[in-house]
Amino acid sequence: MENENGSKRGIGILGGTFDPIHLGHLYIAEAVREELSLKEIVFIPTGMPPHKLQLKVTDSFHRLKMAQIATNSNNYFSVTDIEINRQGPSFTIDTMSLLQKAYPSRTRLYFITGEDAFLTFEDWKCYQTLLSTISFVIVTRLGNRDNELNNKINNFKELYNADITWLSIPSLEISSTDIRRRVKEGKSIKYLVSEGVELYIEKKGLYRD
């Protein structure tokens, strides 16, 4: 990413079901923003994830609202409903195409994803186009240098001149699945989600069934 003298402004893109959004998501976003000196991190709650079509997902209104609540204290964070408002499955290529049109031409988009998702990247719709048009940030646990991932990154760089950053950060062992389970069992989720999200879940009676 270049500097302000004529360079591209970096915008990080972090998509997810966010059911619910938790402190681990926020931690990863801030770590990436700081490491790459990005101008902003945009959170994108998914509409209908193609890999989760058969799973029960909380209503998009609540997931969007929780993402907004969780991020509103950080001026570098924003949330968009770009996927939630689109009908049908949410494919990354479609979302990124819309975002590229929405931002000035000099803006560089950095798609943030994890190791597991990236290892199946060749299954993604139009993955070659994604590799040649946007940057990628692969986030893994600190100290985890997987040979399979390293080989895939190098291969993509060679074939598509892909811009891929591998970022290892300390891991917060928090999962949305565990949070939903804890709520259902009547257990505390304090320090797993932001206070605002905790209150919202309680007020709306989410995850009790």
TrEMBL record:
Coiled coil: none annotated. SUPFAM superfamilies: Nucleotidylyl transferase (SSF52374). It comes from the Bacteria. Pathway: Cofactor biosynthesis; NAD(+) biosynthesis; deamido-NAD(+) from nicotinate D-ribonucleotide: step 1/1. GO terms for biological process: NAD+ biosynthetic process. Residues 13-182 form the Cytidyltransferase-like domain. CDD domains: NMNAT. InterPro entries: Cyt_trans-like, NadD/NMNAT, Rossmann-like_a/b/a_fold. Its EC number is 2.7.7.18. It catalyses: nicotinate beta-D-ribonucleotide + ATP + H(+) = deamido-NAD(+) + diphosphate. One of its GO terms (molecular function) is nicotinate-nucleotide adenylyltransferase activity. Belongs to the NadD family. This is Probable nicotinate-nucleotide adenylyltransferase. It comes from Alkaliphilus peptidifermentans DSM 18978. The gene is nadD.
